[in-house]
Amino acid sequence: MRNTLIRILCCLVLIAVIVPCVTTIPANAKAPKDTQNTQQDTTPTPQDRQNTPQPERPSERYQWAYSGGGQTFQFDTHTLQKINDPYRDEQLVEAWVRVITPNRTASSSIVLQQYYFRLNTKQIQLMSSFDLASDGQVGPGNKFTYDAHRWQDIVPGTAAEGIYNAVTDYAAIKFPPPKEKGKFLGIF
After folding, report:
1. Rounded mean pLDDT of 63-83?
2. Does domain 61-174 have CATH number 1.10.20?
3. Residue 50 vs residue 170, higher pLDDT
4. If phi over 0 gives left and psi between -120 and 50 gives alpha, with beta otherwise, what is residue 122?
5. What sign results for the dihedral spanned by CA atoms 88, 111, 132, 72?
6. Angstrom distance (rounded) from CA 164 to CA 180
7. How many Cα atoms sit within 13 Å of 100 on the Cβ side?
8. How far is the CA of 181 from the CAs of 37, 172, 173, 185, 187, in angstroms?
9. Residues near 36 by Cβ (< 8 Å), separated by ≥ 6?
10. Burial of residue 46, with CB atoms counted within 10 A of its CB: 0-12 exposed, 13-18 middle, 19 or more buried
11. What is the per-residue pLDDT for 108?
C-alpha cells in the first residue's frame, strides 16, 4: 500500500512538472515548419504591421462636413490652416472643401473649393472653385480675390452652416488658443 502511494505521488509530481513544460510555449517561439505543407502563413504579426508603412486612407485626410441635396461635403485636414486677415486684426481659417456629386453630368463629379472662415462673426468667403477630373487633374475653375466686403453670413440649416461648423470645430482642436500666462483661477 505504501509503495502504491509513493508511485501515485511520484506520478503526480511528474505530471505537475512535465505538463506545464510541454503545454507552455514561450511567446516568442515559432511553431516548427511542416515540411509537407508548402503553404506559407502570410498573416502579418503586430510587429510587421508596425514596421510596414501604411498608405494614407482618404477618411483620415478628408473629414465629413455635410451631406444634403445629393452632395457630400468633406474638408481637407492636411491643408487646413490659420491665416491673418490682411484688413483686420484677426485670424481666419483657410480650408479646402471637396464637394462630391455622384450624378453630376459634367466631366467631373468632384469640385474642390477653397474657403476662408471668420471665427468671430460666423462668416464664410469662397476664394476658389475647381473641377477635379477623374484622373486627378485640376480642370477649369474660378479664383477670387480676397475682399473684406464679400463675406457671407452663415444661414442656419444650409450646407454652408454644416461646412462652417465642421471646419471651425476641427480647427479649434488643431489650433487651440494660447493659454494666458500669469492667471490663476481667473482672478489675477
Report:
1. 95
2. no
3. 170
4. left
5. positive
6. 27
7. 12
8. 68, 20, 20, 11, 12
9. none
10. exposed
11. 67
One-letter identity of residue 145: T
| Cell numbers placing 42 | 502570410
DSSP per-residue codes, the chain: -HHHHHHHHHHHHHHHHHHHHHH---TTPPPPPPSS------PPPHHHHHHSPPPPPHHHHEEEEEEETTEEEEEETTT-EEEE-SSSSSEEEEEEEEEE-TT--SS-SEEEEEEEEETTTTEEEEEEEEEE-TTS-EEEEEE----TT--EEPPTTSHHHHHHHHHHHHHHHHSPPPPPTT-STT--
Residues in the chain: 188
Q: Supply 164's cell numbers.
A: 462652417
Residue among 125, 54, 53, 112 nearest 79 (CA): 112
Query: C-alpha grid cell for residue 118?
Result: 471668420
Amino acid 44 reads: P
Please give the average per-residue pLDDT across 61-90, as a whole number.
Answer: 94
